[in-house]
């Protein structure tokens, strides 16, 4: 039976990463507040995180700014991110770029990746793939695995550099083995779209790992394989469950595929009424 194709694209690891700090601990609040009030920038940064976790965004922003103004690179990165996302302060892309650059220049690899993403998207700065690549490479040299995945994407698509499939694949393999979800998906997609004949078993292995990290793009690919028994034992119930959950989270690809499943009667599930709800 004919089935719809999987999305025909690789994905880029999101440039706007989550905040990365020391674990929050409420019992340390008084100690942190005291140290922060005395001007300790690391304590100010950690206190800001405590407040951020409690949803006190404006107070978190204030303490990040204090720490950033004292030269704490992590705080600079976090402050830039808050300006970028509008948490605790109005969105200000100019300020975001300013603080992310300061953090990147102090060798903060997370800031480098975020800054690279802005250059790739042309947000707050003029689009500049060469400048983005510069920061991605610097972060990758520091061992930032997200940067290695992004470097693979640059090689894959010729962003600021000549296309090179072998180097892209090498980057994806390194990043995938170290747990980068986007690299895991891209590696799985490589085994489906670039290997002849497709190695579905290897693809499913990487799709599952990415799916376990809740990478939404993986849901359609993994569900597709499960529904049709490609590279794995056929399991229509699990495939439908994965696609349905992804559709509920807003994935247009999952909605389209569910519609096709019901319209074409894949796995004996023909129901035109349900199909129209997803199309």
Give me the secondary-structure topology.
Layout: H1 29-37, H2 41-53, H3 57-69, H4 73-85, H5 93-105, H6 109-121, H7 129-141, H8 145-157, H9 165-177, H10 181-193, H11 200-212, H12 217-228, H13 236-248, H14 252-264, H15 272-278
Structure explained in plain terms:
With 279 residues, the chain is mostly helical. The chain has helices at 29-37, 41-53, 57-69, 73-85, 93-105, 109-121, 129-141, 145-157, 165-177, 181-193, 200-212, 217-228, 236-248, 252-264, 272-278. The longest helix has 13 residues, at 41-53. The radius of gyration is 22 Å and the shape is globular.
Key structural traits:
279 residues, mainly alpha, globular, disordered N terminus
């Amino acid at each position: 039976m004919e089935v719809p194709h999987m999305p025909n694209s690789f994905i880029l690891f999101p440039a706007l990463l989550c905040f990365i700090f020391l674990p929050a601990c409420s019992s340390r609040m008084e100690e942190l507040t005291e140290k922060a009030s005395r001007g300790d920038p690391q304590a100010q940064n950690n206190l800001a995180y405590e407040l951020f976790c409690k949803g006190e965004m404006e107070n978190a922003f204030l303490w990040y700014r204090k720490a950033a103004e004292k030269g704490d690179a992590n705080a600079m990165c976090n402050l830039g991110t808050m300006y970028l996302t509008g948490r605790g302060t109005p969105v200000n892309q100019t300020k975001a770029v300013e603080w992310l650059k300061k953090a990147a220049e102090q060798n903060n690899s997370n800031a480098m990746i975020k800054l690279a993403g802005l250059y790739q998207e042309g947000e707050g700065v003029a689009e500049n793939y060469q400048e983005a690549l510069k920061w991605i490479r610097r972060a990758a040299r520091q061992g930032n695995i997200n940067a290695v995945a992004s470097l693979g994407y640059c090689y894959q698509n010729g962003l600021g550099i000549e296309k090179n499939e072998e180097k892209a694949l090498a980057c994806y393999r390194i990043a995938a083995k170290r747990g980068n979800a986007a690299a895991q998906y891209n590696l799985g997609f490589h085994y489906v779209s670039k290997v002849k004949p497709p190695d579905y078993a290897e693809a499913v292995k990487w799709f599952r790992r990415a799916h376990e990290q809740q990478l939404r793009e993986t849901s359609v690919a993994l569900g597709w394989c499960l529904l049709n028994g490609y590279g794995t034992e056929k399991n229509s119930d699990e495939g439908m469950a994965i696609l349905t959950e992804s559709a509920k989270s807003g994935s247009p690809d999952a909605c389209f595929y569910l519609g096709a499943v019901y319209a074409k009667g894949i796995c004996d599930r023909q129901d035109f009424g349900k199909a129209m709800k997803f199309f």
